[in-house]
Specification:
The structure is a single chain. Helix content is about 45%, strand content about 20%. The chain is α/β, with parallel strands linked by helices. It has a single domain, classed as Alpha/Beta hydrolase fold, catalytic domain (Rossmann fold), CATH 3.40.50. β3 (about 25-30), α1 and β4 (about 55-60) form a beta-alpha-beta unit. The protein starts with a strand and ends with a strand.
Length: about 325
């Protein structure tokens, strides 16, 4: 069973953290969820890591500020820069020693990049491997929702305007009745060709636990971030990047640019999959995380980047 912890940040925000495995494990994997989600999105990875590595790897997940069971925050702190600082605090308080592998989905991957940018010495002293799942280092540069440029511009305008309104709604949570009505839209936006109904329920539940301030407040920061230069300066860390070829939010060019900036990255493109690869293609995500952990545990040098096609089911 996971150990539940609380990290209190300097501004009073409390982060809900779950950890499995011994504190003195050889490596700790920290899994960071995406925007409007929470730590439960990694449930298929948690089980796989426990089965593969036992007590050699400690696994930590946490709910970002304003998400899940973590507390809400001041609107001015709804930024990726703050999330990068929060990750540094989690490392210090929950994993005070040893090597870490950072695994980030969507906003979680952007958080990892921000941590590397804002705390380069801290990052370099602790981080031994990286896995980027359905994320980007270029803000909304490549986000077209799978639609025409004209429609994309209209949707982005509506989304940005709506985000500004939601950001001012404070700690309120989305009404359950509204989320049930929006399930078809959530399914279209986040998933590819196939989707397990249980995954839709989990995602809807996560959104229901995110504050309206966080749903709206992080949008501007996510759209504006550019961190390819940060990735290019990271050297030869073992790394992997995965993307679905039906991803409407972070399409394949997002992962391709990450792999180009960080040449040790193994790139996996999953046919027919959307944005929620941890749920849609757990075998591919599990294999990528395990591959990076194996390199760290065995001390294998990271090779040059390569691309492979993920599983179709």
């Amino acid at each position: 069973m996971p150990e539940h912890l609380e990290v209190r940040l300097p501004d009073g925000v409390r982060l809900h953290v779950a950890a499995t495995g011994p504190v003195d494990a050889e490596v700790t994997a920290i899994l960071l969820h995406g925007w409007t989600l929470d730590g439960r999105s990694w449930h298929r990875q948690l089980a796989d890591l426990r089965d593969r590595f036992g007590e050699r790897v400690r696994v930590v997940t946490y709910d970002a500020r304003g998400h899940g069971r973590s507390s809400c925050m001041a609107l001015r702190t709804a930024t990726l820069a703050q999330l990068g600082d929060d990750l540094a605090a989690v490392v210090d308080q929950v994993v005070p020693s040893g090597r870490i592998v950072l695994v980030g989905h969507s906003m979680g991957g952007m958080t990892v990049m921000e941590y590397a940018h804002r705390h380069p010495e801290h990052f370099a002293g602790r981080t031994a491997g990286l896995v980027f799942v359905s994320t980007t280092a270029e803000g909304h540069t490549h986000t077209a929702y799978g639609l025409s440029p004209r429609i994309t511009r209209l949707i982005r305008l509506a989304e940005t305007t709506g985000a500004g309104v939601l950001a001012r709604c404070g700690a309120w949570r989305p009404p359950h009745a509204l989320l049930r009505a929006l399930r078809p839209s959530i399914r279209w936006m986040l998933f590819g060709d196939r989707c397990d109904p249980a995954d839709i329920r989990l995602v809807t539940s996560a959104v229901a636990h995110a504050s309206l301030r966080s749903i709206g407040g992080f949008r501007a920061s996510i759209g504006a971030q550019h961190r390819l230069d940060t990735l290019a300066a990271l050297g030869r860390l073992p790394a992997a990047a995965l993307v679905g070829d039906r991803d409407r939010l972070t399409p394949p060019p997002c992962a391709e640019s990450i792999a180009a900036a960080l040449p040790t990255t193994e790139l996996t493109v999953c046919p027919g999959a959307g944005h929620m690869l941890m749920m849609e293609r757990p075998d591919d995500v599990n294999a990528a995380v395990a591959g990076v952990l194996d390199q760290v545990l065995t001390g294998t040098d990271a090779g040059t980047s390569g691309q492979r096609v993920g599983t179709s089911g």
